[in-house]
Amino acid sequence: MEILDVFKTEQWLFYTAIVLFSLCIGSFLNVVIYRLPVMLERDWHDQCQEFLELTPTDEQKHEKLGLAAPASRCPHCGHKIRIHENIPVVSYVLLGGKCASCKTPISIQYPLIEAVTAIMSVVVAWKYGVTLQTFGALLFTWTLIALTMIDVHKQLLPDNLTLPLLWLGMIFALFETYTSLQASVIGAIAGYLVLWTVFHLFKLVTGKEGMGFGDFKLLAAMGAWMGWAMLPQIILVSSVVGAIAGSIMLVTGKTRSQQPIPFGPYLAAAGWIALLWGQEINQAYLTNLL
């Protein structure tokens, strides 16, 4: 297509488009990170009331909430965010990090997510160029960012994100974008069963649940994207990084010994690295081993 040919010849235009578009995606990811858990909690609450045949009181009724509506507002004063106040990163800087109406500080998370999304997207574009692999890897990256932040805040990896990610991996495997369809299917099965087995063995030995079911589905999705051969690397890297980070948080007092630590962010980081550089890492390891 003509636009792709332009991107191939004019690399600066390609990267500029990636930056601008991914900044907008980052802004949308902030909405997903905040609203999706709230939407799920409300839906679960409504389902429980319906199952118990309870009529909600006026206090229990809530405004309909979706990813597209209502328009974003200041959580403190209810000020409706105008278009010029919602420009990724730029608006935060121009507003001095405060609400235009009540001057309440705005969380630094918003511009950070937008900036990180843009940076990671540019890395993906640099790695794969103007190809189908870039398109898929961008979808993979953006989903992992949303899952990471939701897990950090809510210790939840929603099926609304993990399951579509799994099926997308298999769809790309139909075209052997990252791996073969056979390796993708085996990877999805193995990814789920590995952590499912660890979960039940840990529960059998300790009587406690060591991780959530969302972790199984996330690793299954990564197996679908990259194939079964990449799973050992993902598990090893995420476990080592998770153990180091958990130890640091315990030593610094950021968490308590009995407080659960979400594993999803470490899986996401390891999976993103594996998608971009997993083959090179495995090759380097095997070369040094032999």
The low-confidence parts are none
Radius of gyration, Cα only, in angstroms? 21 Å
Q: What do the pLDDT scores average to?
A: 87
Distance between the termini: 45 Å
H/E topology pattern? HHHHHHHHHH
Strand percentage, roughly?
Answer: under 5%
Which secondary-structure class do the elements indicate? mainly alpha
- Could you tell me the number of beta strands? 0
Q: Percentage of helical residues?
A: 55-70%
User: Per the principal axes of the C-alpha atoms, what is the gross shape?
Assistant: globular
The biggest beta sheet reads: none
Number of helices: 10
What is shown here, in short?
The chain contains ten helices and no strands.
